Amino acid sequence: MIKHRTIIIPASVQPNARALCKGLAGIAGDGMFVTGLSATGQAPATHYVSAGIISTEMAALLPCKTVTTAKLPEGERQQAQITLGAVWTGATVNNVCVIVAIATVGAFAPACLILGVAAGVQQWGASAAEREFWGLCARERVQVPDLICTFV
Fold it and tell me: What is the per-residue pLDDT across 105-141, written as a single tens digit (0 to 9) for each?
């Protein structure tokens, strides 16, 4: 059985994680943790993400964890949701592409990672104004705790 996982790691361990993935999974592991993430969307990356289909054996080593943003303060919560949305969009595009690649005997496989990253980056870029708004709201809320922020 095949499982899906999205894994985010700190940038400090990215070189070792990439080497381990390549050593354990060969060519399939070589493309892991190449997409950088940061709070601002600008370099340098503080974390790296890898998303895709993995074997049941590997999934047993990487149990699925639920990500919750409910306990984050307003402003931070929305920024986290926007970031996760961009990551999931990229992962979804990548996975749909992989399904098409399998159906076409691998003809589109090399393009899947690029398409997934492009979709995630596009969604991240499109949300710049909203991310900036929620960041400003979070900073202002420190001074005015009862402030109600609404992005329209």
Answer: 766 666 777 777 788 888 888 888 888 888 888 888 8
Report the distance separating Cα 6 and Cα 14, nearest Å.
15
Q: Which of 59, 58, 61, 64 is nearest to 26 (CA)?
A: 58
CB 54 within 8 A of CB 62: yes
3-state DSSP assignment of residue 23: helix
Q: What is the pTM of this model?
A: 0.49
Burial class (CB in 10 A: 0-12, 13-18, 19+), 75: buried
**Which of 67, 14, 72 has its CA nearest to residue 45?**
14
Each residue's pLDDT tens digit, 65-92? 655 666 777 777 787 778 877 877 777 7
The Cβ of residue 57 has, within 10 Å, a number of other Cβ atoms equal to 8
State the SS3 of 103-137.
HCCCCCHHHHHHHHHHHHHHHHHHCHHHHHHHHHH
